[in-house]
Structure formats: structure tokens, C-alpha cells
Automatic annotation (TrEMBL):
Gene3D superfamilies (alphabetical): Vaccinia Virus protein VP39
Annotated GO biological process: DNA restriction-modification system; methylation
Keyword GTP-binding: no
Top-level taxon of origin: Archaea
GO molecular function ontology, one term from the record: site-specific DNA-methyltransferase (cytosine-N4-specific) activity
Protein's UniProt name: Type II methyltransferase
Amino acid sequence: METTHRVFVGDARDLSGVEDDSVELVVTSPPYPMIEMWDDLFVELDPSVGDALESGDGREAFEAMHAQLDRVWDELERVLVEGGIACVNVGDATRSLEDSFRVYPNHARVLEAFESRGFDPLPDVLWRKPANSAAKFMGSGTLPPNAYVTLEHEYVLLFRNGDVKRRFEPNADRRYEAAYFWEERNRWFSDVWTEVRGELQELAFESDDGGDASDLRDRSAAYPLEIPYRLICMYSAYGDTVLDPFWGTGTTTLAAMCTGRNSVGYELRPEFLEVFEDRVSGVPTLSRSIGRARLDRHREFVRQRREDGNSFGYEAEYYDTPVVTKMEREVRFREVVDVDPLEAIGATDEVDEGTGYLAEHAPLSVPES
Ligand SMILES: C[S@@+](CC[C@H](N)C(=O)[O-])C[C@H]1O[C@@H](n2cnc3c(N)ncnc32)[C@H](O)[C@@H]1O
């Protein structure tokens, strides 16, 4: 099986490289309005943002920044199939302007924007960001009432395009083989994720040519691989196409390759494509390690569950292990065996240049136990 991965250097407010109804899932993280690291970018997109910030009008700046994101959300409604899911990772911002401190609730504004475009909101996820400093508390130390709660969480907002679920052909193998284990379901479909910096992240950055992972994340605001990896497993099937309109360093594409889905991305900054070139060489090793780690964790779960006196009703078809539910029987992991760059994708007025990759997949190789 092969998957294709296209990346356009261009402005996602116009996704003209992506056809109507051609994407089954969106996984993305926009620049967060009112977080200072993105001020210049928003001013580039709309100079009136700069005027609002300079005059200390936080509300107006917040609205002007979201108006730029709204134009991307308009495009998502067009390219996403009916019943396709959009997952938007976003955090709120705290900021003082003209000596006035407040929170800018990005999650609420994005939720409103999607709902008004005909998306149905689904229950969302909170994930906890790393927090390691006692100096993080804002405001007046230990005196009431002017200290402020520290934001240590981000949202993954979830929406369905329209009010109808996606349909699959009866007994679609690509859906049944993309099943996840019961115990994974229990962790992934919980509404608070506390361990997203976990195992996958360490594996992900083994392949970063020794680069400093946290430094990369600081410069690009890259999210942990585990976030798009889980979301893709949760909300799409093998062979689907995943779009990230705010592609950054391509973490979503990395996850799409590892999960056997196609992907397409838009990114304004061409330098991030170079970062991705370094990351992509590690994909075969990464996809194999992730698949094997999932199987190992499942075997550990089986051992523990048996030790607790519970039994299993079903056997997996492709692996020597029992499973809890009938739906898991056909679960089948894949690994990437090769990734090749595609020729540059044709430029248009809106898209200056682009690139792409072809990934070849095979069933996960599992060492004899
Ligand atoms: C929060 S970062 C995404 C990081 C990404 N999830 C990753 O893991 O590397 C947002 C990205 O969107 C890009 N961006 C912002 N506005 C854009 C637009 N209108 N069109 C395309 N890309 C945009 C920024 O350059 C930045 O790389």
C-alpha cells in the first residue's frame, strides 16, 4: 500500500490546491491569537492587527486575528467530506495590554466560528502541558485577590462537518484493520489527556538526527506527535486523507505516514519544510517502533488483566494475542518501509511552490517472541 503526502507553501486562507470534499479529517493547530510569538504573523496577514495592538485595544486585536483564522475555517467546510471530523488544537492566551491583564478565550471563539459554519461540536479533549517552574504563578504572589490561575492546558476542539455521520462500504477492511485496542480506546477517548508527552514522543525525537526536541518545539510551536497520532487513529480509517492547514514542521504528516493515511498541508514559512526533510528520514524506524510499542503495551495489558482474574472473549487475527472486543479482532498495524520525495507540485498564483512524498507501507514486522 502507498500513501501520498503533499505540502504547499502558501496561505491557507485560500486552499485552492485542495479539491471540494476531498479530505476525511482535519488535524491542526493554528497560531494562537494574542500569544505574542504570533503577533508579527497576524500583522502580516492583516495590518489592522498592528494598529489595534499599538493602541492597546486587546478586544479588537483578538477579533481581527480570529477574522484571519475564520477564512481558513471557511475553506475547511468546503474541502472536508460530509461527516468528516475537524480536530483543532488551541490554547487560550493571557496578556497585559495598557496594564490591564486578562485572558483571551481562543477556544470559545474558535468553537463559535465552527458552529456558525454548520459544524456540529463534539465533546472535546483537554491536554496538560508540561509545567515545571514554581515561578510560573502570575499576579501578586500569595496575597488575595490579584493572583491568577496559570494556564497549563490546551484544548483539542472536535467538530463534525454537518449533522450526518460518515458512511463506509459494508465490512470495509480499511476500517476494521484500523481498529484500536479496547484499553487504548479507554485512554484515548477520555476527556483529559495527562500523558501526551509519553512514549511516542520519545520515539518521535529519536529520529530527529539528535536535534534538541524541546528547542524545535519552542521555535515552531510544534505539538507532540502523540496528539495527531491519537486523533488520526480515533477519527479516520486507513487510506483516508488528513489535512493540516497550519502545517508547521509537519507533525501531522509524520503521524499520517505512521498511521497509513494520506496527508496534505499548507504552510506559509518555507523554512519549516527543511525541518521536515530531516524528520522524514526517520519515519520507517519511527512507524515500526510505534507499532511494536503498541503491541507490547497490549501484551502487558493482557498479562495484567489475566493476573486480575479476567478472561478474554476473542483472539486477534493477525497477532498472537487475545483481545477484549469483537471489533478489535482484525486490528492490523502497518509500518513505512520507504519514503521518497515526489516531484515539486505545480505552482499556481496562490501557491508559490510545493513538495510531496510517497510512503510505501507493509504490515508491521513483529519479532518472534
Ligand atoms: C502553531 S504552528 C503549527 C505547528 C505544527 N502543528 C507542528 O507540529 O509543527 C502554526 C503554523 O501555521 C503557520 N501559518 C500561520 N498562518 C498561516 C496561513 N494563513 N497559511 C498557512 N500557514 C500559516 C505558521 O507559520 C506556523 O508554522
